[in-house]
Amino acid sequence: MTVGGETVGSAWSVGELRRILRRHGFPDDMDLEDTTSICWRGGDSGTWLDHPWRRHATLVLMMAGLLASMVLSAAVGWPDASGALTFAQRMTGVLFVLTGLVQGLAAVTVLDYWGRRQFRISGAVVLLGVLIALATSSLLLFMWLEEMEYTPYLLLFLPLWSWSVWALVVLVREKSWKGAPWPKRFAAGVVVTALLTGVSLAYSTMYQPTAAPMHLTLKAEFGAARADRKLPFVHVPLMFSMKNTGGIPVYIINDIYTVRGRAAAYSKVPRDAELVEEWRETAGELGNTLGEAELYIGDLRKTTISSNHVYGAGKWLEVGQEFSTRRVFQLPREAKYDTVSVNVQISYMRKDRGKLDVDEFGEAHYTWHGSDKRYYCQWVLCGQHIIYSGRVRHNNNLINVTRKPRFVTTSWSPGIRPVSSISSLRYWEAKGDLREERTELDRYGAASIRADAEVPMAELLKSAGV
Question: What mean pLDDT value characterizes the chain?
Fold first, then answer.
């Protein structure tokens, strides 16, 4: 309705028409057929195409869909906006929160567009909210199709995708953008916003986590041994140091050092005929990470003397942070070892790709404790292990809402190389999918580093004055 060239509202019936006229000073009994006062376009006073029940149903469905999409955008964006480690990921989260606010505004505007239409731009705002809902639900659906795992969010974004397609058809049929004062500028703004969103998502999910380097330096060395005055033993110190020399912080998900004593049978005559067989036997020994083959020795035997954690599972190193520690182990003075070696291995993962629940992960579970049925396993079947397991959340919350929860699980046992996995299985004894574990280890940037040192037994005894 226009009065004197100014739009004053919209009427869906004769009653609404008279109420608007009354507010603008026209009499209640004004003749609606008086062509000198009223000009009808596309009909007359008896032409009303409105179906109230249909209009009200459309209003309710539009508002409900936009509000649900607003909640989804906020749920996806807020964890990244408030807790992501990188600036790009935080900005992606902020972007989702802002789109949620736009959809909330569009939900309120629905009341005007399917009501009095007092604001010319209301139809365009509703259209923008629906386009955002369609883009968000399409993105989530596309990411879900990569793995097709059940997640509670599926019950929200799958119906929302269907709703947004219906809503877009309704708004296009009604040409809701016509009321906007600058429809071309509005369309250009929508396109630019979509492009910026796509670039931001691509940068935060692909380029930025890959570009940041990850590097740890690790060192292990023996110190000078000291003889025990009361017991026939020597005390041998070990020094470990590691430093995060990369560009991102890292979680330590498992670590172990193992001290071994090596003994062998020596011969002045080369053992060429037996060398290959000896190497095969040595390389296949449990706990031997590298095969050894030497010309003048045979019958290689390695004995685990000491094994322990270095730093502790579930802790982390910030960029530039350094850690060092000193440990001591004991050797009998008469020990028949030729050399003593130490091997240290650290397993870690990028902190910019996932947030590990360190409180849960830092709790040790013992497989020989029958009271912990989730991790208990008979010794004859599984051996004896200490298990660490905890939830990890990807720093891009889009992955969290389109996947099952992921868990980091590691096993520790003295003298044995630690085993780590990241999968949708919570407990270590469950048989998982190797392909999934490799994918997740790569997704969260898991890696390992090791260092070795070896010293002759004679040198240790000499430094102890024995």
Answer: 83
Q: Which of 210, 246, 247 is nearest to 396 (CA)?
A: 210
> Do the Cβ atoms of 352 and 346 come closer than 8 Å?
no
What is the sign, positive or negative, of the torsion defined by CA atoms of 179, 180, 184, 187?
negative
> For the segment 81-124, what is each residue's pLDDT rounded down to a tens digit?
888 777 777 888 888 899 899 999 999 999 988 877 777 788 88
Within 8 A by CB and 6+ apart from 59, the residues are 110, 111, 114, 115
pLDDT at 105: 94
DSSP helix/strand/coil, 282: helix
Q: Are residues 16 and 64 in the same domain?
A: no
Name the β-bridge partners of 370: none
Q: Do 180 and 308 lie in a common domain?
A: no
Number of domains in the chain: 3
Residues spanned by the domain of 28: 1-50
- Both 363 and 227 in one domain: the answer is yes
Question: How many residues does this entry show for the chain?
Answer: 466
Largest interatomic CA distance in the chain: 126
Q: Is 204:196 a contact under the CB 8 Å cutoff? A: no
Mean predicted confidence (pLDDT) in 214-230: 92
Q: DSSP states of 9-74 as a string?
A: ---SSHHHHHHHHHHTT--TT--TT-TTT---SSS-TT-----HHHHHHHHHHHHHHHHHHHHHHH
Lowest pLDDT segment from 114-118, 120-124, 261-265, 290-294? 290-294
